[in-house]
Amino acid sequence: MNNKTLKKSMLLCTFSILASSAFSQGNHVEAPIMGWSSWNTYRVNINDNLIRKQADAMVSSGLKDAGYKYVNIDDGYFGYRDENGLLHTHPERFPEGLKSVVDHIHSLGLKAGIYSEAGTNTCGSMWDNDKNGIGVGLYGYEHQDADLFFNKWGFDFIKIDYCGGQQLELDEQKRYTTIVNAIRDVCPRNISLNICRWAYPGRWAKELARSWRISGDIGPSWESIKYIISKNLYLSAFAGDGHYNDMDMLEIGRGLKQEEEETHFGMWCIMSSPLLIGCDLTSIPEQSLKLLTNKELIALNQDPLSLQAYVVQHEGNGYVLVKDIEKRRGNIRAVALYNPSDETCSFNVPLSLLELEGKTKVRDLINRKDERSVNKTLQFDVAPHSVKILRLESEKRIEQSIYEAEQALLNKYDDLGKRKRPVTYKPTEEASGKMTVSNLGADKNNFAQWNNVFSENGGTYKMKIKYIPAELQDREINDHKIEVTVNGTTTRLSELETDRSKGIATAELDINLDKGYNTIKIGSRRTWVPDIDCFELEKISNKM
Ligand code: GLA
Question: Ligand 1 pocket, 124 CB below 6 A?
Answer without folding.
Answer: yes
